[in-house]
Amino acid sequence: MIRPILPYGDVILRKPTVEIQPDFPQLKGLISDMYETMYSASGVGLAAPQIGESIRLFIVDGTGFEEDEPGMKNFKQVFINPVVLQEEGEEWAFNEGCLSIPGVREDVFRKARVLIEYQDEQFAFHEKWFEGMAARIIQHEYDHLEGILFTDKINPMRKKLIRSELEHISRGNHRADYKMKKPLVRR
Ligand code: NI
What we know:
Blueprint: H1 27-40, E1 45-47, E2 57-61, E3 76-88, E4 92-96, E5 106-110, E6 113-119, E7 125-131, H2 132-145, H3 156-170
Antiparallel strand pairs: 1-2, 2-3, 3-6, 4-5, 6-7
Nickel (II) ion is lined by residues 98-100, 140, 144.
């Protein structure tokens, strides 16, 4: 089932998230809904808070980047209860977007490599380094679990330029061609 995506301005996107246990109700269904929702919006990552669930879970599918980066071939997976342990390497800029902020893309600087501990769908633990576009997607989605959006990380001048667009989105006026929720600005 496709779920509506919460837009910039919704308070849930800023709320702290909690860890989940294997008995979390309807987890399988939630994960399959998240994939369906992400694909319906042509995204490469989606964090649970973006569909209104304040839990530590995100999904990625960066397999579409395989042509540019052969290492992306198998980069489709679920991250449960992730913890970023280390980030290193030179910062590089990439023009990021976010399904919660349709129509806005800005350069964001992030470190090149990330070491993350997480559980998979069977709740088995993993600890793994990622780099390049995989690291970038993980860092962006992980930020969602911390209540951080990519627009928090752009330079103040650019932020000023997109302020009115962000206000539009947080009032429920957006140009997304996928299903979005009306924002709850206070809760
Ligand atoms: Ni995002």
